[in-house]
Amino acid sequence: MNETHKHGIRLLLVDDDPSMVRLLKTIIEQSWGDHVELFSLTDASEAHQWLENHLIDVLVTDLEMPGVDGLELLRCAKRRNPCAQVIFVTGHSTLDSLVDAMELGATDYLLKPFDHAEVLELLDDAAKRLRRWRRALAGTLTAQ
User: Fold this and answer.
1) What is the per-residue pLDDT for 39?
2) How far is CA 112 from CA 35, 68, 74, in A?
3) Better-scored residue on pLDDT, 58 or 2
4) Angle of helix 18-32 versus helix 116-143 axis, rounded to 10
5) pLDDT for 95-144, tens place per residue?
6) Radius of gyration over alpha carbons of the chain, in Å?
7) Distance CA 77, CA 12 (A)
8) What are the residue boundaries of the structural domains of the chain, listed by start?
9) Alpha-carbon distance 82 to 44, whole Å?
10) Distance between CA atoms of 119 and 14, rounded to whole angstroms?
11) Which of 31, 55, 58, 88 has its CA 20 to 30 A from that of 70?
12) Superfamily in which the 3-143 domain is placed by CATH
């Protein structure tokens, strides 16, 4: 089976706050279980390197981090997989950074503090959008 589809969805969590990564990881694992192959990192530079070598379906990342920011992670994820869904988690951001995120193809964003149900709703929406993109792409390949 293709590496991207082995567990349904390959998801990367990136936040420089380890407690935020643990919280998101727990929420996702409890709800998605075996339907997700979950990776998590607390160093944005390390995440950038990881993304250069791995395909993901969904990226959940902090927008503002030291060193490499979430916008650069979005660019990298989209370069490797144009269908990748990117959700930003942020406690504070500027209008410019949110507009940049939208223009670069961000799927959505969560403002901290957030509700667990809100996280799951956004991830479900991203998964549905990802499936639609996959079906559309598969349809164009069989039509050729």
Assistant:
1) 97
2) 26, 20, 19
3) 58
4) 70
5) 888 888 989 999 999 988 899 999 999 999 999 999 898 888 887 766 55
6) 15
7) 10
8) 3-143
9) 20
10) 15
11) 31
12) Response regulator (3.40.50.2300)
